[in-house]
Amino acid sequence: MSDPVLRLSGIEKRYNPGKPNEVAVLRGADLEVARGEVVALVAPSGAGKSTLLHIAGLLDTADAGEVAIAGEALSGKSDRRRTILRRQEVGFVYQFHHLLPEFTALENIVLPQRANGVAPKEADERARALLRSVGVEARAEHRPAALSGGEQQRVAFCRAMANAPKLLLADEPTGNLDPGTSDTVFEALMRLVHETGLSAVIATHNLELAGRMDRQVRLEEGRLVAV
Ligand code: ADP
What we know:
Elements: E1 6-15, E2 23-33, E3 38-42, H1 49-56, E4 64-69, E5 72-73, H2 79-89, E6 90-93, H3 105-115, H4 120-133, H5 149-161, E7 167-171, H6 179-196, E8 199-204, H7 207-210, E9 215-220, E10 223-226
Parallel strand pairs: 3-8, 3-9, 6-7, 7-8
Antiparallel strand pairs: 1-2, 1-4, 4-5, 9-10
Residues 15-16, 23, 25, 43, 45-51 line the site of adenosine-5'-diphosphate (ADP).
């Protein structure tokens, strides 16, 4: 079998070590995500979902354990290598869109590609194709402030996919939207993920949305258990 797109082995993370307010958030978390698999990460607020996603996405480091992305183990690798791998192989979506306010929807998807060395015309075409696939191509020239919450989030998905990563990590991506909008936006995300054959870990406390993913894992006392 080919390498999993993401492998977490024995991940440990504590905040404020040795201090009275020390919290051991992750205590040996293990996870393997296969190519094309969409995994729901469910747990109540404060359980450590964001911490886990940040470690998996190389935005933070674990105290112990190993992260491997597309078969490449990251421990002992330079910051430069981690940054390159993060930029090329990982897409992130947060609860809030974090689009750049002074740029249009299209430009927000073009910029990360340009930073990755993609030619302007190609970056533009890819950005438009992504916007089309989530149904917001008519909003390409609008700035984020002129978009609805659901549109902003769909543009944020496109930006996360701009450099065709292998792994998408999403932290409560529809948590800020009303239930009706959340449903359509979630469907757009799932379609985009399945069309591109991407692997994804999507944190949510919405059990109905979690049930629509391929598999669910729950964070329980710092470890991941199958639901
Ligand atoms: P979730 O995403 O499931 O809500 P988080 O990963 O954000 O959980 O947080 C897990 C726990 O770690 C919480 O108790 C939170 O207060 C604590 N925590 C998160 N980040 C920090 C930090 N930078 N410093 C100290 N404690 C933190």
